[in-house]
Amino acid sequence: MTLLGDKEYFKGIGEIKYEGATSDNPLAFKYYNPNQVVAGKTMRDHFKFAIAYWHTFCGQGADPFGPGTQNFEWDRAKDPIQAGKDKADAAFEFISKMGFDYFCFHDFDLIQEAPTFSESEKRLAIITDYIKEKKKTSGIKLLWGTANCFSNPRYMNGAATNPDFDVVARAGAQIKLAMDATMALEGENYVFWGGREGYMSLLNTDMGRELDHMGQFLAMARDYARGQGFKGNFFIEPKPMEPSKHQYDFDTATAIGFLREYGLEKDFKINIEVNHATLAQHTFQHEMAVAAKAGMLGSLDANRGDYQNGWDTDQFPNNILETTEAMLVFLKAGGLQGGGVNFDAKIRRNSTDLDDVFHAHIGGADTFARALLTADKIISSSSYNALRERRYSSFDTGSGKDFEAGKLELTDLYTIAKENGELELQSGKQELFENIINQYI
Ligand code: XLS
Ligand code: NI
Ligand code: NI
Known about the structure:
Elements: E1 17-18, E2 28-29, E3 37-38, E4 41-42, H1 43-47, E5 50-52, H2 53-58, H3 80-98, E6 102-106, H4 107-110, H5 117-138, E7 141-146, H6 165-184, E8 189-192, E9 198-199, H7 207-227, E10 233-236, E11 246-247, H8 252-261, E12 268-273, H9 274-279, H10 284-293, E13 297-302, H11 320-332, E14 341-343, H12 356-381, H13 384-391, H14 398-404, H15 410-420, H16 430-440
Parallel strand pairs: 1-2, 5-6, 5-14, 6-7, 7-8, 8-10, 10-12, 12-13, 13-14
Antiparallel strand pairs: 3-4, 9-11
Helix pairs in contact: 3-5, 5-6, 6-7, 10-11, 11-12
The structure holds D-xylose and nickel (II) ion (2 copies).
One nickel (II) ion (NI) binds at residues 273, 275-276, 312, 314, 344.
């Protein structure tokens, strides 16, 4: 296979195939059957599964208490250009073997940032050309690109919201290059995650000014990419905290309000990450429903948190119940707008075998597939939809309908209530709803 390049990194592992729920083969999909049609679309098209370059090919398992444990072969070259190429070879081999169609990256996941800006620019151009070729031979596509404007110490006070204009300008330059790379690789979307767009202390922070700067900055970025002919979506990825104490894109509702305030709502949608939702004290499905209501359900970063601690553990998805509830929202919304399901997740520090990353992605894909199949069955064969609609049926006729149509005034409500007298209680039937979900899982 030409797409493997000269070297095979994942030796002994072939293409991962669908073998069905009765298969004992750990290196096979049990539920994710790419070409199976569910609710009018293949699973492949529903999900557009993507691998996250940063976790799968840059992360080595380091944590605050110790260095990396995953010293894989593609990470060993000393020369940054060679290292970037090796990483790309390993990434494209892995994605091909998984049978996925997409990847996502930050600029300096692709290649190490250089000591100077112009050297970084050269490096990015080299690796972009290299990956362009790999894309061509493999057919693998770019779901989205983004810029890492949070790791380098220069961004310690923020990027677009930095109090120092020169840092803002530097972030702008970096994002221009990241967008250029995304467009050169025919990226379908571009993401903004504001890791340090926020503050640690309000005492030294002019929040209003910083928010205005962020609005201004995103409008400039949009105008630049549109001017270059970029037709894709821009996504904001909300997260309430970490690394900043308080991030401006706290959650989906906050991000939507922000986008509308700065006139960005036509070009931007939301990229929702499971663990970010839980950090914001929401559920994943809540965040999805909020975005869907605004017509902004753009893309998903699939992972899961840990309910016993409060940080972004970025574990692979395995919670069928949670994902099934999310897929109910997904199907009801008619899927994602331009985006896909990106596994923004990493294997644990003590997962040190080459096949661990396969098990991780197989499990994640199967979780989503099983949840989609279940949600589809719930919608098509259970009483779930009817029960839900019945709760609101008083708005389907008569005065309820007039209310929705804006034909009533407050005094009409007064008259209706007076005529009604005391009301009978209407059960919410939550336990029944919960049972239906579990029955179909
Ligand atoms: C971090 C974010 C990050 C974005 C891309 O928590 O999830 O990985 O997805 O910058
Ligand atoms: Ni993410
Ligand atoms: Ni995250």
